[in-house]
Design a protein that fits this description.
about 140 residues; mainly beta; DUF6941; single chain; Immunoglobulin-like; 3-stranded antiparallel sheet; 5-stranded mixed sheet
């Protein structure tokens, strides 16, 4: 059985990821209350990939959910209106990396302002179909 992937989510105003280093550059990081409609925001995803899962594509899904666990859906011309992203992350194993080590990877989702009703929301990160990290926030009217 493969080792579990560890992850953390950080809400911020804006962010960029450096794909080769696993680092994230963030502005306005760590908030948990915002207005509605929201301003632009970013979700920084910091991932620790176990040694035995390097050099493999690992599926992930980052999705905005309501407090009752339903995906947030916005009206739009195309698609189902869900707010989030699906991707694969893959980290190489540098030569000489000791078994048991973790390799850093990063993913950032920058999000345009959202017309959310006032309430509590959470970003959920799923890896291999399991929720591994959550970041919640409150949108005030």
């Amino acid at each position: 059985m493969a080792s579990p992937v560890q992850a953390s989510l950080i809400l911020c105003d804006a962010a960029t990821a450096e794909p080769t280093s696993g680092k994230v550059n963030m502005l306005g990081a760590g908030w948990s209350v915002t207005s509605s409609p929201t301003g632009p925001q970013a979700v920084a995803v910091l991932i620790k990939i176990p040694w035995d899962r390097t050099n493999q594509q690992i599926p992930l899904r980052l999705q905005l959910m309501t407090t009752d666990g339903a995906p947030v859906r916005l009206e739009q011309a195309e698609g189902d209106g869900r707010v989030g992203a699906e991707a694969h992350v893959e980290a190489g194993r540098p030569p000489g990396t000791a078994p048991g080590s973790h390799i850093s990877a990063a993913f950032v989702l920058n999000v345009a302002p959202l017309p959310l009703p006032a309430g509590r929301y959470e970003w959920r990160l799923e890896i291999d179909g399991d929720t591994v990290a959550v970041a919640d926030f409150t949108a005030l009217a």
